[in-house]
């Protein structure tokens, strides 16, 4: 097996953006609005809410803004009963035109760009340097949604969804963050402690958004910070995170939280790109991949890197496909952290077997037909079929078996398990890239499946599920006995408990197939 070293790969940490979302500070700044429609009045109200010094050039429609002139606002409003001129845009921070006439719109855009200010023409995206999104207002917490003008109704629907998700009480917590930040900054804390404080603050805000962030809450949070300061020894921490089989929506909330607080992410080849999209943008990402029978990083090198980064005070997330505790070498990495005195926690993930079963629409257990679920590896340290598998247990006709990483050894596995007594027509399904958009699978019997693996692409994580709990799924796509198979007759547990031999099958003499 070819070895390779952990590496930070070049490339994007974010997918392409149609527009760049920005938040403008407009308090006291000169902003120009041309137009007098109902839409222009709404734009004026929005801009005044930011504290802007807004000048509206309304022509003969100045009375449309009488309501805004009569009501108090954060900013200042001046309404001019004339149309705009190029000199009006001098020094403007933004220029917005609600202008129907195309030639006038072109002139407004040219004047704005000549003055060096970004410009927006309402409902004419081809003229716009920026756009207005749908807003969720919990100021100073503000969420803006944009579809780049493609689907405004969709943006509004998403806004309504977010409005329902974000309690109004978060406004007070966002203001508290603004008010308390100087006290945190004055302590000159190292980054891990600052991050820990704000993580705790965010958890408290989301747990009890209706609670008033009063002096009691403040004292509790700062007392926790005092404790962190007194016990902090400069070391970071390691979190082993299960990335699931591929679909980012299968990540747990705790896994997402860890990814968003990471300083460094050490990830495997098998981790889907969509999962990394959910990580903190500023986090360094390093590939420490292991590929079956291909170039792989040595486990000792991964352990050493993980510990070294944590000793520098970093929060290291070790991101593993599936569940880190199932054939993910989590035990070795936990031992390395313990030996170095590095705090380590483990966040479980959806296993590849669970993901594959969900894609197939089957249960891995069944009260009558699958009384046990067993996970085995398809290869050992030397890349060959392990010598110490319990073949008697694997030949159990009323167990479901998940075989991890079996591509190169499934033929040998088949020969051994059939020799141990498993019936050749036991359903078996190979699933490649389970839960991902490019998932692929082959359904067969355990006797025939090894020769059919060539039908699958030659790269990607593969898992084989085997057992009669898969009979219904197998019957949908396989010829022969499985295509017409019904569930095997239930086997009394007391008769099966002491033997795996055929004489323990149902009295009518049928095999489970």
Structural commentary:
By secondary structure, the protein is of the alpha/beta class. The protein contains 17 helices and 19 strands. It has helices at residues 38-49, 66-70, 102-115, 152-165, 170-185, 191-207, 215-231, 253-260, 273-276, 299-311, 330-340, 352-360, 391-394, 410-419, 449-452, 471-475, 493-496; strands spanning 3-4, 30-34, 53-57, 76-80, 94-97, 119-121, 134-138, 141-145, 237-242, 264-267, 284-287, 296-297, 315-320, 344-347, 372-377, 399-404, 427-432, 440-445, 462-466. The strands form five sheets. The chain has a five-stranded parallel sheet with strand order 4-3-2-5-6, with helices on both faces. Strands 11-10-13-9-14 form a five-stranded parallel sheet, sandwiched between helices. Strands 15-16-19-17-18 form a five-stranded mixed sheet, covered by helices on one side. It is elongated, with a radius of gyration of 31 Å. It starts with a strand and ends in a 17-residue tail after the last helix. The model is unreliable at 478-487 and 490-513 (pLDDT under 50).
> Which strand-content bin applies to the residues?
15-25%
Q: What count of helical segments does DSSP give?
A: 17
Helix content: 25-40%
User: What kind of oligomer do you see?
Assistant: single chain
Radius of gyration: 31 Å
Major sheet size, sense and barrel closure: 5 strands, parallel
Mean of all residue-level pLDDT scores: 87
Unreliable runs: 478-487, 490-513
Main structural class: alpha/beta
Largest beta sheet: what is the strand line-up?
4-3-2-5-6
